[in-house]
Design brief:
CATH superfamily: Luciferase-like domain
Largest sheet: 9 strands, parallel
CATH architecture: Alpha-Beta Barrel
CATH class: Alpha Beta
Number of strands: 13
Number of helices: 11
Number of domains: 1
Strand content: 15-25%
Helix content: 25-40%
Distance between the termini: 43 Å
Radius of gyration: 21 Å
Shape: globular
Length: 366
């Protein structure tokens, strides 16, 4: 079967998409706070053939008071995962509602360096008053203000990634020069709430720009590489994808699958006794692996891929790895990242030119 293929991403934060997923996890609750746990899940996703793992995060702990759940920061987990994987992309969530874009740019550029070009960034916003207090920043209560901070923050991060040209590091022993200062640039950004001059303190990332993912209703399309779109049925997803205006589009899909020990419906009912599985307006599949394969096959050509949110990682990722991804691969419906490639190349995205460069390195060499 020929035609477009789907890029497969999976969210691997915590124990799964359901708030009570830890009750069905195949490990003790304390192991969730060990880096080996997330590395093992990422390795399973890589071996299955996923193109990307994402790691949710925020300044506030997940879980509802008075029972918050601790977790290691997404960037720190992503860096650990990068050292134990070789092909899969890794995209932590980093909101820029209150965080300093200068520091965010450095964190993500560093992740791209340590992963050899496999870093992405899922952009979100923080809208709770507790988040502002945790940052020690004035509350941005209105949606327009948060949208401004997200727009400015993503724009500043992208500009800082370009503030070093690709060949700014020269390491010349003869002249005792490490850098060509002519190839470092001030970005000179002035917004409504802050200003940034730059340049960054981390050299330009291997990808030029790590892959930026986000909801098109939160981040302007011109600042995104990949739109994350939702819809409760394929028609709604199709409409959202058509309106996204981004190079790539991934559909958000909640997943609960039949396992050898229990049906998907039984597993959901078991967890619903403890907490509800919130409806986030996404496609939701509760059923067999074959049914999910059919659903995803129907999305081919409508979106460029999907980001799956498994009900319980320890249960659903095994079924995805054993039955779903292989079935899609056999029908040539799913793309598998190649060794030595970047996340951009895996998603079919070009490496962007540096906005400040006046002479391309290959032209100068000639």
């Amino acid at each position: 079967m020929s035609g477009p293929v789907l890029h497969l991403a999976v969210e691997i934060d915590g124990d799964g998409a359901h708030p009570a997923a830890w009750r069905r996890a195949a490990h003790s609750p304390g192991r969730l706070l060990t880096p080996r746990r997330v590395a093992g899940v990422a390795a399973a996703a890589e071996n299955a053939g996923f193109s990307l793992v994402t790691l949710d995060d925020g300044v506030l702990p997940p879980g509802a008071p008075p029972d918050p759940v601790g977790r290691i920061g997404a960037v720190e987990r992503a860096a650990f995962v990068a050292a134990s994987t070789s092909t899969i992309g890794i995209a932590p969530v980093l909101p820029v509602t209150y965080a300093e874009p200068f520091h965010v740019s450095g964190q993500l550029a560093s992740l791209d360096h340590v992963s050899a070009g496999r870093a992405g960034w899922v952009v979100t916003e923080e809208d709770l008053p507790e988040a502002a207090r945790a940052w020690g920043r004035p509350l941005i209560a209105d949606a327009g203000g948060r949208a401004r901070e997200t727009r400015d923050g993503v724009g500043v991060v992208r500009a800082l990634w370009d503030s070093w040209e690709d060949d700014a590091v020269i390491r010349s022993v003869a002249s005792s020069r490490y850098l060509d200062r002519e190839r470092l640039h001030y970005i000179d950004f002035t917004g409504e709430t802050y200003s940034v001059k730059g340049p960054a303190i981390v050299p330009r990332p291997p990808q030029g720009q790590p892959v930026v993912l986000g909801r098109p209703d939160l981040v302007p399309a011109g600042l995104l590489d990949v739109a994350l779109v939702s819809g409760r049925d394929p028609a709604a997803v199709t409409a959202a994808a058509a309106a996204a205006g981004t190079p790539r589009v991934l559909a958000e899909v909640d997943v609960a699958l039949d396992t050898p020990r229990a049906s998907a419906a039984e597993r959901v009912a078991d967890l619903e006794r403890h907490a509800p599985w919130a409806d986030r307006g996404r496609l939701r599949h509760i059923g067999s692996a074959d049914g999910l394969v059919a659903l995803l096959a129907g999305l081919r050509g409508l979106v460029d891929g999907v980001r799956l949110h498994p009900l319980v990682l320890d249960e659903d990722l095994a079924v995805l790895s054993r039955l779903v991804v292989p079935a899609l691969s056999e029908r040539r419906l799913a793309a598998r990242p190649l060794p030595g490639g970047s996340l951009r190349s895996a998603l079919g995205l070009e490496r962007p030119a540096n906005r400040y460069a006046t002479t391309a390195p290959e032209e100068e060499a000639r």
